[in-house]
Model the fold of this input.
Amino acid sequence: MNKGWMTFAVVAAAGLVHAAMQPIAGTNVVGFVEIAAPAAKNTIIAVPFEACMQAGVSGKLGDLVSTYGLTGHSSDAALADQLVVLTVDGGSPAYYYYYNDAEDGWTAITTEQIMPDGSKKTLTPPAASAFDVARGQGFWIKRAAGSGSTVYVQGQVSETKQATAIGEGLNLISYAALESFDLNAIDWTGAAGASGISASTDRILVSKGDGSYYTTYHYYTGGSKTEFNGKWVSTTGTIALPAANIPAGQGFWYLRRSGNGAFTFKPDGE
Done:
C-alpha cells in the first residue's frame, strides 16, 4: 500500500536542554498528515491520531486540525473554513459546526436544528478545545471559496489497534492507518450482508470529491459466489475496485442497516 505523506517527531532529550532545565525524555511518536481538501468543497477527514502525551486518550478537535494554510475570518463564519462533526445531542443525531476565527482559531457556531415535529432546537457545541474526537471517527471540513487545497491533521500515533463502535444508521468513520488502503484488505468481522443487494445489506459510501459517492455493499460469508465472501462489492458480481483505494486521511460513511444491531470495527483484527 502507498504511504500517505507523513512527518514524525520523536520526543527525546536531544535539543530540549535549556540552561539548567532538566531534559524531557520519552518515546511518544507524534506527527501530521497532509490531506487533499480542495477549495469550495466538502471533504471527509479521518481521525488517525490520539491526544499528544496521553496514550489511549481521544484528541480534542481544536488540537487535531491545524489552521495553518486555512481560510479564517474575524466575524463571518460563512467566509471561513468550517469543521462539521456528526454527534449526538440530547439523545438525537446532530451536527456541530466550528469556523476558523482569524484570531481565535476553531470557534463553535450556535445553530438551530429542525425537529421531526417542526419545532426548532438550539445547538450550542462545546469549545473545540474541549470536544473529544476519537481515533477512527470522521468529520467534514467545508472549505471556503478561494482557500488552499490541503489540510493538516496532527496528533500522537497510537500503539493500540483500532476499535470503532458502529451503530445502526449512518456512521461517519475512518481507518486510522497512516496510509492509503483497500476496503477489502482489512477486517470487517461484524459487517452484515447478503448474497444480493437488499434492505438488510450494510453499505459503505466513499466520496468521489465532487459531491457524489461510490456505494459498496457487503457480500456475506456463505454466499453462492464464494470469491466475494466477506467482500465489499459494487454489484452482486463486481468487487468494489473503483472505491477500494481510499487515500490516507480520508473518512467515509458506513450505513448500518436497521435490525443488524451494533458491532465494533476492528480493521486490524482482535
About this structure: DSSP finds two helices and 22 strands in the chain.
